[in-house]
Specification:
- The protein has 221 residues and is an all-alpha fold.
- The chain contains eight helices and two strands; from the N terminus they run H-H-H-E-E-H-H-H-H-H.
Length: 221
């Protein structure tokens, strides 16, 4: 259900997005994961506020201003921000209420390769979090202060994120090599479809009915 709602996020209007967000909060409350959902949402709230500030000041479509803020930029940033919040809410609600095993089995039904990719992605998230915490501890032991002013914190986190990204890329490369050594190539054996007598009977009968319908349609025009 949540996968379908994530797809809807890209096509709905703003008022419909508000409805989905309220519904998501209600479902989280009923499922008992409201507090965890709010904790996961907070970092993205800061991103949305930053988007509102930037677009209200420098968006080239700004024509109407309220003080120093452009209303067109605010409207655009609001739409993008609401979609971002909706995606984050729905994705986290899915992860909080559905086990990883069930998710992998469901996506694997769509295509086996998708199930493998999704399973590897989920298995890599805890590793990245542990690498992030380890790198923070190492950098703090070396004297790096990430509780400083805003610019100092940004520089500190950049110094932490870069090693984590490099380690994640290396881990993905080693994982690909491991899958290749175990014989996984992603290829599937192509089976030739063969028709029997019943298939040919259905084909010719449906073609005959279609021809009669087309003739009847144009003969009575």
């Amino acid at each position: 259900m949540c996968l379908a709602l994530i797809a809807v996020v890209f096509t709905v209007e703003l008022w419909q997005m508000v409805f989905w967000i309220v519904l998501c909060f209600l479902l989280a409350y009923l499922a008992g994961v409201f507090g965890d959902l709010i904790k996961r949402l907070l970092p993205f709230i800061y991103i949305v506020l930053l988007m509102l500030l930037i677009h209200s000041l420098v968006n080239p479509q700004n024509l109407t201003y309220w003080w120093y803020f452009g209303l067109e930029g605010l409207e655009y940033a609001t739409r993008i921000g609401m979609r971002l919040i909706g995606i984050v809410l729905l994705a986290n609600l899915m992860l909080l209420t559905t086990s990883s095993h069930e998710l992998i089995n469901y996506i694997g039904r769509l295509h086996p390769d998708l199930g493998i990719i999704f399973g590897l992605m989920l298995s890599g998230l805890p590793v990245m979090r542990n690498q992030m915490q380890t790198t923070l501890d190492v950098q703090a032991a070396r004297g790096l202060d990430y509780h400083d002013r805003l610019l100092g914190r940004i520089a500190a986190y950049i110094a932490v994120i870069v090693p984590v990204i490099i380690q994640s890329i290396n881990r993905a490369y080693y994982m690909a090599q491991l899958l290749y050594l175990r014989g996984y190539t992603g290829q599937r054996k192509v089976l030739e479809e063969r028709w029997n007598g019943l298939d040919w009977l259905l084909f010719f009968s449906s073609s005959l009915l279609l021809s009669i319908a087309i003739y009847w349609r144009f003969a009575h025009c």
